[in-house]
Specification:
mainly alpha
Length: 87
């Protein structure tokens, strides 16, 4: 509903969201501060992920690139290939 009010401009003039939105747009953006905040947020998420996962899952993720994949059995040729070649 707030979206429609802002779009149509029919909401009450003393809405706190409308005043806050205008104030946010007026303040200049400090890119260094934003980068620091983003790095802190990423670090917080990484720590949360470490706490959430148990030791087995972490070990599986760590060694996933070294997992053994069995060789393909058979070859390139399939059973129905011979039928298509003779037709």
């Amino acid at each position: 509903m707030g979206f429609l009010r802002r779009l149509l401009g029919t909401g009450p003039a003393d809405e706190p969201d409308a005043d806050r939105g205008r104030a946010d747009r007026a303040t200049p953006v400090d890119h260094a501060t934003l980068d620091d905040e983003e790095r802190a947020r990423e670090l917080e998420l990484a720590r949360f992920e470490q706490d959430r996962l148990d030791e087995l899952v972490l070990r599986q993720q760590r060694y996933a690139d070294r997992s053994w994949i069995p060789p393909a059995q058979g070859g390139e040729r399939r059973a129905d290939d011979e039928d298509a070649a003779t037709s």
